[in-house]
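Quick one: structure for this chain?
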Amino acid sequence: MTNTLYQQIQEFYDASSGLWEQIWGEHMHHGYYGQAGNQKINRRQAQINIIEELLTWANLNSLENVPKNILDVGCGIGGSTLYLAQKYQTYATGITLSPVQVSRATERAIEAGLAQKVQFHLANALEMPFEDNSFDLVWSLESGEHMPDKVKFLQECYRVLQPGGTLIMVTWCHRSTDNSLGELTPDEQQHLNKIYQVYRLPYVISLPEYEAITRQCGFKKLRSDDWSTAVAPFWDVVISSALTPKAMIGLLRSGWSTIQGALSLNLMSQGYQKGLIRYGLITATK
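Got it. Here's what it folds into:
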């Protein structure tokens, strides 16, 4: 089951990454549209802004807290990896399950003149090929939702993080069930199941569940937040961009899994509108 999931994730990103870069650019994650989600902003700038907002939120946007060795878990084609390496003038490593992404990210590192400082590996985040205490920043921007074992994932993040180092994890969640709304309804679960199928996800959990796992793994100084409102406009922008002739031609060339993903973009938009999909943040130290 797990090997099949990994293969599905690999094939999905092998097929779709080129089109995404062609239409959207190097950043394969949500954009930030202001705290109230109402800023009218260029889509690429919104994706850069979320990186900067996250660094500020995690207290890493000061000269006293400059990371020296960064791990980007679920690096895509190296958007965040290269951005962070350039910003901090430091070493960075990205891992992904997609050979296509590793190849393209490596090309982009060479093009940016960062081949000596940035490297990319084909690797499983649940079995990272790194020594204990290797990195002082572990960065995971929208990869946790792909992990079939959330506990093992965070255990691995803890293992490779240096003492005193920082974890920044941002991931798709479902709404909390520890409130008056109670457990997920059958309709909500059906909605999530459709998202799982399209985007090759095993399951998602709530932000409070992530908080509990993070503490269980031994992390300290945990902080969390929900930026769903700030990022929700992203999917409507993606839908608009998918309706251009250039995108349509690219979709036809990319294969069925990518076409299916494009046809299902409204699942995420509707999920945010209903309050079912949440955009969860965790930062903590070892």
